[in-house]
Amino acid sequence: MAEITENPSNIDQRSGFCKSNSTFYSKRKPIPLPSNESLDVTTFISSRPHRGKIAFIDAATGRHLTFTDLWRAVDSVSTSLSVDFSIRKGHVILLLSPNSIYFPIVCLAVMSLGAVITTTNPLNTKAEIAKQIADSKPVLAFTVPELVPKLADSNLPIVLCSDFINSNSSNTKIITSIEEILKREPNQKIRVRERVNQNDTATLLYSSGTTGASKGVILSHGNLIAMVQTVINRFKFDEEKEKFICTVPMFHIYGLLAFATGIIASGSTVVILSKFELDEMLMAVQKFSATVLPLVPPIIVALINNAEIINEKYDLRSLHSVLSGGAPLSKEVSEEFSFKYPGVTIFQGYGLTESTGIGATTDTVEESRRYGTAGLLSPMMEGKIVNPETREALSVNRMGELWLRGPSIMKGYFSNEEATSSTLDPNGWLKTGDLCYINEDGFVFVVDRLKELIKYKGYQVPPVELEALLLIHPEIVDAAVIPFPNKEAGQVPMAYVVRKTGSSLSENRIMDFIAKQVAPYKKIRRVAFVHSIPKNPSGKILRKDLIKLAISKI
């Protein structure tokens, strides 16, 4: 990140905006980052002082790992990788697994050697996983028994994230299991430890590809260290007493980095659910007296729609905070949640895989009451609002593309110079692709994805705005809005709607409901009913899938 050379007197203290260079500076206090360049993120996390005792709890079995158990396991796995499998700095390791206690152990062990961890969605098809393998070229894979068939043709040696070693498939090379590795005593003397620098690659995460092909995002140890520092400095929680529920996927930036690194660095306890199931999540909150629940907007909407039943069935008194990330949360949804769960505060967060999940947050109750905002720029993060057509940097309350610069911004896209140069400018600015504005108090408001704006007769219509209105309709469970081709207008807003069970809500009633609340050019012109809205693991709507569906029926 470029040094801040501006005279503080040139920066408006209320908004953080500097007129001389059209840059918004974070209003939050800078956080200390280690000056030692020879430092890996695993060493950084393990050396942090804290009072925590239990690191992880498996919600299904009740099995737990103390922090001592965790670091002993990391040592054992890293030693085995180095000695038994000759894993060295720069080697890529694939992790294909649902959430589990083993997940952070594998990640931390791999990164401690300077090797690179790449994760993938367990729901991906065999072909999709094969494509990622061909791109990232891993030398070893960790997976669970039920997912072994998806790696059958990869010819990768496999370590099972379980104590089960036998395989029914002759096309796989299962060589051992984590449980077998953990039975051995780590031998520090024979482990090869290469020098790891903060600029070295730590993870290769593949972006969600909601509007195009998925790309490998290169994140360094320094990126992750900055992320960890930001996460643990965000709140004034009593870490020793906090229990986080981890139901968001660990293979995604939200789950992997916040829970495999950020939260455990603070000494808090993470209760792990292997997959999301609403009743199981709420039962875990009650059983383990969880205090903090990180979620994505679709789950928050589900909590709102089922609030009466949930509040009768479960004791959620221990819960004081919900962290929302992965996709924008509308003002309407935030207000409705606060009304139905008055004892719980929603804290918003905005970030991308390309920014290591860091960008803007609401960190206090007062900030969280500014409904509709993603929060203030994170510590040491700089922002610009840029006109996407003229490239002019804009001032307060002007809408344009958000650019970010800071210590957590990615190194680039893996083996894709064209995508890297179009997303990162020579001065280190990340072009987020999000249409935003920053108000007079320095709060970031995310309007929509630039590529997803509907162009109606020259007007720009943000789908997120219409979706937020649809979601407050009492007979609508979920909704998505897409551009539908139209000869006269270019594009018109089309809504895909999931009705509540038993509802007879019609297309015309939905269009009338929206028409009463928006300008004429924002009216929904077409409606289709579906059983579910396709989304990626972070809750972002897969509009490209819905657009294909709509066009196929023309």
UniProtKB/TrEMBL annotation:
Keywords: ATP-binding, Ligase, Membrane, Nucleotide-binding, Phenylpropanoid metabolism, Transmembrane, Transmembrane helix. GO terms for biological process: phenylpropanoid metabolic process. Pathway: Phytoalexin biosynthesis; 3,4',5-trihydroxystilbene biosynthesis; 3,4',5-trihydroxystilbene from trans-4-coumarate: step 1/2. The keyword rRNA-binding does not apply. GO terms for molecular function: (E)-caffeate-CoA ligase activity; ATP binding; trans-feruloyl-CoA synthase activity. Pfam families: AMP-binding, AMP-binding_C. The keyword Protein transport does not apply. The chain crosses the membrane at residues 251-273. Residues 50-414 form the AMP-dependent synthetase/ligase domain. Residues 465-540 form the AMP-binding enzyme C-terminal domain. InterPro entries: AMP-bd_C, AMP-bd_C_sf, AMP-binding_CS, AMP-dep_synth/lig_dom, ANL_N_sf. Belongs to the ATP-dependent AMP-binding enzyme family. This is 4-coumarate--CoA ligase.
